[in-house]
Fold these 2 entries.
Entry 1:
Amino acid sequence: MNSRRSLTSATVANLCLLLYICTTLVVTNGELQRFIEPAKSDGSVSFITIGDWGRRGDFNQSKVAYQMGRVGEKIGLDFVVSTGDNFYDNGLFSEYDPNFKESFSDIYTAPSLQKQWYSVLGNHDYRGDSEAQLSSVLREIDSRWICLRSFVVDAELVEIFFVDTTPFVKEYYTEEDGHTYDWRAVPSRNSYVKSLLRDLQASLKRSKATWKIVVGHHAMRSIGHHGDTKELIEELLPIMKEYGVDLYMNGHDHCLEHISDEDSPIQFLTSGAGSKAWRGDVDPTTNNPKSVRFYYDGQGFMSARFTHTDAEIVFYNVFGEVLHKWVTSKQLLLSSV
């Protein structure tokens, strides 16, 4: 009798998962896969962005997760965005790797965080079984988890375009950094990047959203340890400018940053401080142009709230204290710190 009840529960859970995916995922030929996230009844959308986090609670990951839960409740969280390097040190070794539960399900337990997590892969994720994080098996373990290489979250007034940036970086193919990468889905760097950018352009061209955001793991502009990613500046940034992207969000550098583009309205926002930070690794006073609005080398995360006219970005430290806030208006086309 107990086994029958257990089987029935598992069947119901699987059917619910399948129903969610079918009702939220839209696939259009020549474009990126699309997930639907309806805006709230007041027309607003709120989410938290976190990156470089999966360390089984160590390096203050659990403390950051606790503060995320508090902020999530305060802002009426709709979903979470993960900027990659989801599991350290080398991703997952399979879809049954206990690191998934120990670094994700067991850590982000606050009621407000029981929403969908939309994730991209980082370079550390590519060092393991990169296919594992994309597997539906993980969604059966924890239904919050959604990870694809590149895709779109359509939240009505906001569209978020997730881009798989690791294959852009040419250094990784030479293994000069001493690591090997799982390139099974990337037989050719140039053809993969070309196809991805073509699909991204089609999706951006179709977008009618008030706010357009691109999310990738690697920083486009950064004064942190890794600095700028030249391949993204050369190949991705021109497309973002052409189609009026407002924000680029990333991880990779284990810090929090806000940098303004020097010749467009695009803002570069780094949230890669979900666990281990590199405090003192870089002296920001030696490389701090006027375009750098904020830099913090400790642990923390970022929240974002959008309405049809306004956007608010807030950075928090491991104690939940506000470090930096930026507000902009589409009506006035003005911004303030």
Note: The longest helix spans residues 2-24.
Entry 2:
Amino acid sequence: MMKKCCYLTIFVLLVHSEFLAIQPVNATAKRVVVPQNPADYLSLTYYLNKCPDAEGIIQQKLGAWIQRDFTLAASLIRLHFHDCAVRGCDASILLNYKGSERSSYVSSTLRGFQVIDDIKAELEKRCPRTVSCADILTAAARDATVFAGGPFWEVPFGRKDGRISLAKEAEVVPQGHENVTALIEFFQTKGLNILDLVTLSGAHTIGRCTCGTILNRLYNFNGTRKPDPSLNTTYLNLLKKRCKRSTDLVYLDVITPRTFDTIFYTNLQRKVGLLTTDQELYSDQRTLPFVEAMASQPFLFQNQFIVSMTNLGNVQVLTGNEGEVRVNCNYVNPR
């Protein structure tokens, strides 16, 4: 009964906070409100007149790619996260040259660049120099979620593309072995909270990971020369069989790897979380209540995923004259 009350309290707090966030502005007020957050300049109708078919083109192109390779859905969500995690959602991860974020070792397993290039090429034919790469990547992450069976949400547009991308800055992106405190602190630097951390981690309900990321958990956890004691023994043996080489791939969700659901969270309860960062969400008292709430209430996860992905897509965006609309997502426009 206590757990049910805890979940209900979490839900009420979430609903209340969202209600407060959308209170209507008094139409009779004369005071002009100037947006303090760059994300406030984004708009759901940004391309309505400039490029009305933009979202349709992105969805159509993306759907064709995912139909050929379903694993691209998770890859595009991850690519979006890596972009927003460094310098904000400015498509800096797409810049392709020596010394860019994309050239960093941390980014070596990222995929989906060709998908974005394909979408951008079509949009340039239809609406030249109009739709930014940052907006394309944000919308693609949303559509990838939908194609994987997840929720739909409206994406506000108007992001501009950044002109700077540094490999060393990509090294701050979580790599799967950080503790919960480090994760919380990293998310806070992006204006995201603990609930966002737990919810966005739920994207690991789909996707794969290289065995090199988890080998220490299997054979030498924290230098003990023993496996991670938090791993379910049966799961540990399964991973040892599947991870013959560091480049081998294993699913982040061993139960329903192709379904966008809440099994990821129940996996943590059963000690079958693949990444250290995921499993520790269940052992840390700051994140545990949210994990248990998501595991028991799928609708809560779906609704909060919309909120947290919107929050992620609004991180440190560039608007107005702060950036540009690249003609080719791989390169800054020549001046």
Note: The chain has a mean pLDDT of 91.
